[in-house]
Amino acid sequence: MNNNFTAETLNDLFRTLHDNDFSKTIYIANNPGTEDCDPSIAQAKGWTVEKYADGELYLDNKLEVITMTTTAEEVILSLKGTGTATVNWGDGSRIETKEISEGFFAINFRHVSLFSPDFVT
How far is Cα of residue 29 from the mean position of the Cα atoms in its chain? Predict the structure, then answer.
C-alpha cells in the first residue's frame, strides 16, 4: 500500500507470492498501478487482492471534490467531472462504488452494516 508501484511492478510482485492454502490478503491501495494491474495472478495462488484500504475514499483522477462532509456513517460529496467514487468503510461492510456522469453532482455514501436489514447487494 502506498508504494508508488506501477501495474507491471504489482504484477511482478504477484508472481513472487507463494501458493496459499490459507486465507491471505495483499493490500495494493494508493499505487499508480492499482487499477491497471492483473490481480488474477495473485488470486490464482489463493490470495485475496484488496485494492481499497480500510476507512478510505477513492476518486478517479477525473473527479474533483468541490465539498465533502463526513460523519462515522455518511460521506456527502459535491463532485465535478466524470468517473468513479469508492468508499471502503473499514469494518467489513460492503465497499460502495458510484459512477459519476459529467457535470456537478452531490452524492451520498451511507454506511450500512452487513447485519442491517437495509443491506442490499
Answer: 7
Please enumerate, as own/partner, the contacts of 118-121 that have beta carbons within 8 Å and a separation of 24 or more.
119/93, 119/94, 121/94
Domain residue ranges in the chain: 1-51, 53-121
User: Per residue in 39-51, pLDDT tens?
Assistant: 999 999 989 888 8
Q: Give CA–CA dist 88/37, Å, rounded.
A: 20
Which helix H or strand E contains 78, and what residues bound it? strand 74-81
* pLDDT at res. 113: 43
64 contacts 79 by C-beta, under 8 angstroms: yes
Q: Which residue has the cell 501458493?
A: 19
Cα–Cα distance between 19 and 79 in angstroms, integer? Answer: 42
CA dist 16 → 2, 11, 12, 33, 41 (Å): 19, 9, 7, 17, 10
DSSP letter assigned to residue 96 = E
Separation of first and last alpha carbons in the chain: 27
